Amino acid sequence: MDGIVTEVAVGVKRGSDELLSGSVLSSPNSNMSGMVVTANGNDNKKFKGEDKMDGAPSRVLHIRKLPGEVTETEVIALGLPFGKVTNILMLKGKNQAFLELATEEAAITMVNYYSAVTPHLRNQPIYIQYSNHKELKTDNTLNQRAQAVLQAVTAVQTANTPLSGTTVSESAVTPAQSPVLRIIIDNMYYPVTLDVLHQIFSKFGAVLKIITFTKNNQFQALLQYGDPVNAQQAKLALDGQNIYNACCTLRIDFSKLVNLNVKYNNDKSRDYTRPDLPSGDGQPALDPAIAAAFAKETSLLAVPGALSPLAIPNAAAAAAAAAAGRVGMPGVSAGGNTVLLVSNLNEEMVTPQSLFTLFGVYGDVQRVKILYNKKDSALIQMADGNQSQLAMNHLNGQKMYGKIIRVTLSKHQTVQLPREGLDDQGLTKDFGNSPLHRFKKPGSKNFQNIFPPSATLHLSNIPPSVAEEDLRTLFANTGGTVKAFKFFQRDHKMALLQMATVEEAIQALIDLHNYNLGENHHLRVSFSKSTI
């Protein structure tokens, strides 16, 4: 299985008895490694439920604080996203259960995931820990019902095991049963990121995996829940809603796929049950703390025509927080502070123009003021709260002119221009009418090409007369080392150029964005998600 976690919760309806019909049981599954029983009498004495919290990992998990009326199917569904469930023991008198998974690795993944996202059954939080038992030995004859549930679930699970090496498994079911939704965004005038989708769809249940892509010039996503019921609820509530005021409309269908096979955790795809996956572009995998923060469910309120976030609790969900300023009730202006305070600047080197160019990668900078009495600090006013969040999330902690800059939201609502006739030594500049704003045009492709600072730069608007050597020399003159260069095959107006470090790339972008290459061509420079 190449270490991929199988996630299939198809056909398991919580609290449903449909799986128990005779037709399901007519062909017993030969792969069953253990049958199921709801314990009574003697079993209750055998399993006292006194597992220690700090126990060593085991493929048997101890589940506590279960609601009284909870069914075997619901408990099994907790484990399904992480691998094959091989046995279950319900202690109904104690509101506890033991769940056995096929491997210890699957159990560890499950415990790690649910330590970040508290699991709920019937709106009640439950608690999961490793059991002292290394396997469950149960009496097969005592409870036919529990045995049948596990057998039916295992049959469904085996039938839907994904093919290794494929991006998404080819196994398909009737659309209404799928836990996977296909999402298309219409009228995408503002960026919609994977993390924004996670924030919105987590309202309806734990989101396990997301893959985003562009098809037919439209931003699309596949999103997988642990349970088809969650997918159904999300579709009913969100189909046709706008993410932002009067734009970014959600079009939602059930996917024919029942399982997504995610190989990388990055800005295009994520498996929330596997925070250890690599990012796939030479960068380290997601930091576990950030991965846990991404997985935290937050509350969103759906209102007609828009979605309004009530809480975005952790700054680690950077791009999701970026949406906070733009998401609101219809007719209400976008919230969020538009002014940023940038500190620890290199006061010998920094200028309003250099800040305008760098911060302009993430939004349309309106005004810049370097503070007269504290020239290592500046106020930067963006066009809206979404853009200030994006800039803060991407630029805080980056190096500019040799110093690590700090970016926070300012308490100021606007940047004041100096009084007329007052000379402030050129420390304040108004860029409101600049022709260099990247995001003035609604629906511009620039909205879909916002990436964190990276060593690789995307160059565009290159005239035919300019050769690779010219560009290499130009970028080397910014004080860095050009490591690699590649023209786009189909379009020599564009190229990728890789500097030795992210800091060198930031410097090159500041120096050379809008550089006049002749023939009325001004070079456009952005950060790229690609590597050469």
UniProtKB/TrEMBL annotation:
Could you tell me the superkingdom of the organism this chain comes from? Answer: Eukaryota
Q: What region holds the RRM domain?
A: 59-133, 181-257, 338-412, 455-530
Q: Does the keyword Ribosomal protein apply?
A: no
Q: Which Pfam families match?
A: RRM_10, RRM_5, RRM_8
**Database matches in CDD domains:** RRM1_PTBP2, RRM2_PTBP2, RRM3_PTBP2
What InterPro entries does the record point to? HnRNP-L/PTB (IPR006536), HNRNPL_RRM (IPR055204), Nucleotide-bd_a/b_plait_sf (IPR012677), PTBP1-like_RRM2 (IPR021790), PTBP2_RRM1 (IPR035002), PTBP2_RRM3 (IPR034799), RBD_domain_sf (IPR035979), RRM_dom (IPR000504)
* Stored NCBIfam families: hnRNP-L_PTB (TIGR01649)
- The entry's protein name is Polypyrimidine tract-binding protein 2 isoform X3
Q: Which organism is it from?
A: Microtus ochrogaster (Prairie vole)
